[in-house]
Design brief:
alpha/beta; Leucine-rich repeat, LRR (right-handed beta-alpha superhelix); 3-stranded parallel sheet; globular; 3 helices
Length: 93
């Protein structure tokens, strides 16, 4: 099961308010990170989220997709996000 599939499954958990996921070192790519974010954005009651996604292959595109999706989590008040990667290229600074 990939990260996108996990996101699709989590999207069905509409009453989920607290979530901690440790998915470090899992070869998650840009599409997986974006898919996970899209699923989490549908968890309308999510208020506390901890995501450990370090040492994957998320890259710039995946980080942007994840961030854009999480921006739609209207009730999210606490976010801890670990995206420790070997490299990121920053655009628009």
């Amino acid at each position: 099961m990939g990260a996108s599939s996990l996101g699709s499954s989590l999207a069905k958990c509409i009453n989920l308010s607290n979530l901690k996921l440790d998915l470090q070192v899992n070869q998650i790519g840009a599409m997986g990170a974006s898919g996970l974010g899209s699923g989490l954005a549908k968890c309308i009651n999510l208020s506390n989220l901890t995501l450990h996604l370090g040492v994957n292959q998320i890259g710039d595109e995946g980080a942007s997709g994840l961030g854009s999706a999480l921006a739609n989590c209207i009730n999210l008040s606490n976010l801890k996000l670990d995206l420790q990667q070997k490299q990121f290229i920053c655009f628009g600074l």
